[in-house]
């Protein structure tokens, strides 16, 4: 943990260094904000027109400046003093007003030689009183102790330039964002760059096109993916796997409409929180409807259709359906972030004493599902921020009760969980499952959410043993979450080379010449008859070209049929992973494939 904190401080310090270099090279630029991020840092600038070709010049200037930085020194100032110091920067003035609204103190940080730390009187006059190679910024802190020593050469670099709206709002001005990479050592940076080269080869947008899995259309709109037959087959296989795991544990399918009156979301609390992110519909009669951005409020109304006895609980509803969110165009990214999102959603309505058993059952589903793909899972407890209760439903006591329930379950499972303050859903805390893919990248995948607030808002109850109405609890569970997002992760995890059970085409049949086409068709018919997804290449190409085409399509197996195979009444089996596996009869082949498919290896 301390190592991570040191790296975060280094990355934050580098953001200051970047701003100092840019302002020295481009004095008319205005610096705005520059945080540390997962792989490094960035800083946004107004009035700065540069290209990637300028990054090396800026980087060299950063290397020059940091030689003179001996300290990061905090300078406390009043609001009025801060506004005088940054009078020429409207972005800093806006940030100062925000700090005032939050009732926080205003702090500046000076970086440069220790002998030249400015006095407040100097700063009131002008920031130009700073000596060369020093810098002053509005900041909350969190920097390295010795910049010259702690920002090691070779462990960081500037990576790219992008456009970014001020505060992420497309109504605001577009700024120039400069990204940098930063790691603990030169080797760590080099290792990261190697992973990124590999990640580029695995880019799901590129592979999705090459493997003919999905497409986008300008006539339909950005963020609205279209699924080809092969991509749809893969989605169905994934959804079927989740349903297979759920049905064993007593879940029932339900179905809901794609639109709703806005009153449903006003009652659930989603309207106040997300009204600006919803697609709205006005009917001919003037009624206001919205495209559903989530499914849980709909599911509450299925539960609320009757008064349930405690003997009938839990009620477990599962629903794979689309939701719609008005994401900003600049934030859309292939399948990772879309406007039409397919969720494998489920909600359990149960009594308080049933919560543990139900969550453990969902946890088991998640473990089995992600185990089939080789993901390493870790746990994050996403909790509320008690200092900011206005953004959550319910009261502090309810939140403490639900969070303690999740802590106890995690403890009983014998796993360590990172606690993330402020990452809860607005209606309840979560157990988030973090999956590590084959490149070592971590993704938030499945989630289990414990909700004691929505049942209160919708007055969801059961009749207990005393014939009294008892408030129930609601558990939200998504295994893949967004199928689109999980699909993009899965493509990159496997580099498009899916295991046999998941491959759209499981085996390709390659006759050596036209003479073997009849025998190849017989083999095709035998495989299709038992549900194996096989295709036959009847082209006039050479065997070598046929094999190359199979490899490009990343098909797990192919069968070669020539005169020798026909004489032996067998086929030659070749594997994408193991190479030539020799001759095998069709019956043996079917048995081998069925075993491998059933085991989901």
From TrEMBL:
| Subunit structure and binding partners | Homodimer.
Q: Which InterPro entries is this protein grouped with?
A: aa-tRNA-synt_IIb (IPR002314), aa-tRNA-synth_II (IPR006195), aa-tRNA-synth_II/BPL/LPL (IPR045864), Anticodon-bd (IPR004154), Anticodon-bd_dom_sf (IPR036621), Thr-tRNA-ligase_IIa (IPR002320), Thr/Ala-tRNA-synth_IIc_edit (IPR018163), ThrRS_anticodon (IPR047246)
User: A GO biological process this protein is involved in?
Assistant: threonyl-tRNA aminoacylation
Q: Which Pfam families match?
A: HGTP_anticodon, tRNA-synt_2b, tRNA_SAD
Name the reaction it catalyses: tRNA(Thr) + L-threonine + ATP = L-threonyl-tRNA(Thr) + AMP + diphosphate + H(+)
Gene3D superfamilies in the record? 3.30.54.20, Anticodon-binding domain, Bira Bifunctional Protein, Domain 2, Threonyl-trna Synthetase, Chain A, domain 2
Q: Which UniProt keywords apply?
A: Aminoacyl-tRNA synthetase, ATP-binding, Cytoplasm, Ligase, Metal-binding, Nucleotide-binding, Protein biosynthesis, RNA-binding, tRNA-binding, Zinc
Query: Could you confirm whether the keyword Transport appears in this record?
Result: no
| Record-listed E.C. numbers | 6.1.1.3
The keyword Zinc is annotated on this UniProt entry: yes
Record protein name field: Threonine--tRNA ligase
Cofactor(s) it depends on? Zn(2+)
């Amino acid at each position: 943990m301390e190592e991570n904190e040191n790296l975060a401080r280094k990355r934050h310090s580098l953001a200051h260094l970047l701003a100092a270099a840019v302002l020295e090279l481009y004095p008319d630029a205005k610096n705005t904000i520059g945080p540390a991020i997962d792989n490094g840092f960035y800083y946004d600038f107004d009035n700065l027109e540069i290209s990637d070709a300028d990054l090396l010049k800026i980087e060299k200037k950063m290397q020059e400046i940091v030689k003179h930085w001996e300290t990061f020194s905090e300078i406390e100032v009043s609001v009025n003093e801060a506004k005088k110091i940054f009078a020429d920067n409207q972005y800093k003035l806006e940030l100062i007003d925000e700090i005032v609204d939050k009732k926080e103190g205003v702090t500046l940080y000076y970086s440069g030689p220790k002998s030249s730390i400015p006095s407040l009187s100097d700063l009131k006059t002008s920031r130009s009183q700073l000596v060369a190679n020093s810098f002053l910024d509005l900041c909350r802190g969190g920097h390295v102790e010795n910049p010259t020593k702690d920002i090691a050469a070779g462990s960081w670099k500037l990576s790219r330039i992008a456009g970014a709206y001020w505060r992420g709002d497309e109504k605001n001005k577009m700024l120039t964002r400069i990204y940098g990479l930063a790691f603990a050592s030169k080797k760590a940076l080099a290792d990261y760059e190697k992973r990124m080269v590999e990640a580029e080869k695995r880019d799901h947008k590129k592979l999705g096109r090459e493997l003919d899995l999905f497409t986008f259309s300008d006539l339909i709109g950005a963020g609205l993916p279209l699924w080809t037959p092969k991509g749809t087959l893969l989605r169905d296989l994934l959804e079927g796997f989740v349903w297979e795991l759920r049905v064993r544990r007593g879940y029932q399918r339900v179905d809901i409409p794609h639109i709703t009156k806005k009153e449903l979301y006003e009652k659930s609390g989603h309207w106040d929180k997300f009204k600006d992110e919803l697609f709205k519909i006005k009917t001919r009669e003037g009624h206001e409807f919205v495209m559903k951005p989530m499914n849980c409020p709909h599911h509450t109304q299925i539960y609320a259709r009757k008064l349930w006895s405690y003997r009938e609980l839990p009620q477990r509803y599962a629903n794979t359906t689309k939701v719609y969110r008005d994401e900003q165009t600049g934030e859309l990214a292939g399948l990772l972030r879309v406007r039409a999102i397919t969720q494998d959603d489920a909600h359990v309505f149960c009594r308080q004493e049933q919560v543990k058993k139900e969550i453990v059952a969902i946890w088991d589903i998640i473990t089995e599902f992600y185990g089939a793909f080789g993901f390493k899972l870790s746990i994050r407890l996403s909790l509320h921020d008690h200092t900011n209760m206005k953004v959550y439903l319910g009261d502090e006591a309810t939140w403490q009760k639900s969070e303690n329930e999740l802590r106890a379950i995690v403890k009983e499972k014998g796993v360590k969980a990172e606690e993330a303050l402020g990452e809860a859903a607005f209606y309840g805390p979560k157990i988030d499952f973090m999956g590590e893919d084959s490149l070592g990248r971590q993704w938030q995948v499945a989630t289990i959410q414990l909700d004691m607030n929505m049942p209160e808002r919708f007055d969801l109850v059961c009749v207990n043993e005393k014939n009294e109405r008892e408030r129930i609890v609601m558990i939200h569970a998504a295994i893949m979450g967004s199928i689109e997002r999980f699909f993009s992760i899965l493509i990159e995890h496997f580099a498009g080379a899916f295991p046999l059970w998941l491959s759209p085409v499981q085996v390709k049949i390659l006759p050596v010449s036209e003479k073997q086409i009849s025998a190849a068709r017989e083999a095709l018919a035998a495989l299709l008859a038992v549900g194996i997804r096989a295709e036959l290449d009847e082209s006039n190409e050479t065997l070598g070209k046929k094999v190359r085409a199979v490899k490009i399509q990343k098909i797990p197996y192919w069968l070669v049929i020539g005169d020798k195979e026909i004489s032996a009444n067998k086929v030659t089996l070749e594997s994408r992973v193991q190479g030539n596996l020799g001759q095998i009869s069709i019956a043996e082949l079917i048995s081998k494939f069925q075993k491998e498919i059933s085991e989901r290896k």
